[in-house]
Design a protein that fits this description.
There is one protein chain. The chain has nine helices and no strands. With about 260 residues, it is mainly α. The two termini are about 30 Å apart. About 40% of the residues are buried.
């Protein structure tokens, strides 16, 4: 039941993100007569402090978080997997340098590094993706390296090496498929982290800029009206919490299905 609910929530999130533009939305239309109108008063989720429909901005915010999550997780997964597998396969000084680089990144909280990078690069969804990707690849590289090290000495890998199969072919045909399961699980949890990080950066003013909508910026704009119009904070907060909770629950289920054990 929980898994089906999580899938339904994530499906709705993706549906709104991908096809929300087909709905007749007016997220930036200012209506002075509807300023701070409550839920159900002409709009299912009411209006904000500028008279803009909260539902329309919620859909746009869903697209923002979805695009950032897919791009960041995709880039981080690709870069981290390539760097981790090559590091473990080649070894030597290259592996030592990459391990030291990973340790440097892990020595600092990822969100703090993302805030610093976003502050340097400037606000905007493209810079948010870059900042979070620069921070996010480390976890995938560390996992891919550890998994590759455990597979490098297996009999079928050794046999392929002795037969003269090229290293990149071995990694693509024999190593990557075997390490894909834990990486997929890691990526599923990474989606939740990226969604929260994007909302946090937007809340701080380092994400998407007005009039573009983000769940984080919606929460920030609604805090000043929390006592008179709590729906401005409750609606995007609930949407954010549901998506993150659903991703984590689905990640737990996926880990059990793929029989991935963690220490």
């Amino acid at each position: 039941m929980i898994t089906r609910t999580s899938i339904a929530i994530l499906f709705l999130w993706a549906l709104l993100a991908l096809f929300g533009d087909m709905i007749n939305l007016t997220p930036n239309e200012v209506n002075l007569e509807s300023i701070l109108a409550p839920m159900g008063d002409g709009s299912v989720f009411g209006y904000d402090d500028l008279g803009r429909p909260v539902f329309d901005r919620l859909v746009v915010g869903a697209k923002t978080s979805f695009v950032v999550a897919v791009c960041v997780v995709g880039i981080s997964l690709l870069v981290g997997t390539v760097v981790g597998t090559i590091s473990a396969w080649i070894g030597g000084w290259l592996d030592h340098v990459i391990v030291c680089l990973i340790d440097v990144f892990l020595a600092f909280p990822g969100i703090l590094l993302a805030i610093v990078l976003a502050g340097i690069l400037g606000p905007g969804i493209e810079n948010v993706i870059v900042a979070l990707s620069v921070v996010g690849w480390v976890g995938y590289a560390r996992l891919a390296r550890a998994q590759t090290l455990s597979l490098r000495e297996r009999e079928h890998i050794q046999a392929a090496t002795l037969l003269g199969v090229r290293p990149h072919v071995i990694m693509w045909r024999h190593v990557i498929p075997l390490i894909s399961a834990p990486l997929i699980v890691e990526a599923s949890f990474g989606v939740a982290g990226v969604v929260v990080a994007e909302a946090g950066l937007s809340f701080l003013g380092l994400g998407v800029q007005p009039p573009a909508a983000s769940w984080g910026s919606m929460i920030r704009d609604g805090i000043g009206y929390l006592l008179v119009s709590p729906h401005l904070v409750i609606v995007p907060s609930v949407a954010l919490a549901l998506v993150v909770l659903s991703v984590n629950l689905l990640g737990d289920r996926l880990r059990d299905l793929l029989d991935i054990h963690t220490n």
